[in-house]
Amino acid sequence: PTEDGFTTDVLALYDWAKARAGNSSILFWGHSLGTGIATNTARKLQEERGVQVDAVVLESPYTNIREAAAHIPITTIYRQFPGFGYFILDSLALGNMFFPSDENVKVLACPLLILHAEDDTVLPPHLGRKLFETARKAYKDKTKVKFITFPEKLGLGHDYISFNPELPTLVKDFLKMK
């Protein structure tokens, strides 16, 4: 899999869904790695086709793949060694893996919802906050950008935000502002 391949696949899926959706809204919902794919595709649609997706929801996001890789738990022991940045983090760029959500959100104009659990140990919540702040600074209409955190006591971690019974209401309320 490649970053370009993922984006191309989602564009094809978008075209397929759009052809069948009639007047229904289509939003992109990415989780973890998928948040980078969602922002890449939304940006590509906007810049190359002049099409704005109806909304983007990012669950447990990161700013870019390099920063995400520097914070995931598996890299903890390697961070102390010389060359970590070069051998591990820079190798992602050599493989054309960037997933620059932080750059993508600067050009998006569609409603953007960021969801992050405070007890996420895979992608720390400060990456979601940083992405939110980047988007908030860039968006002309600040009301289109929202950040919702879920307290640690809920135990949602990295993978279980979708289990929160309040999530459907939170998303519906967000989509009403569109």
Automatic annotation (TrEMBL):
InterPro entries: AB_hydrolase_3, AB_hydrolase_fold. Residues 8-68 form the Alpha/beta hydrolase fold-3 domain. GO terms for cellular component: endoplasmic reticulum membrane. GO terms for biological process: monoacylglycerol catabolic process; phosphatidylserine catabolic process. GO terms for molecular function: monoacylglycerol lipase activity; phosphatidylcholine lysophospholipase activity. It holds the Pfam family Abhydrolase_3. This is ABD12 lipase. It comes from Thinocorus orbignyianus.
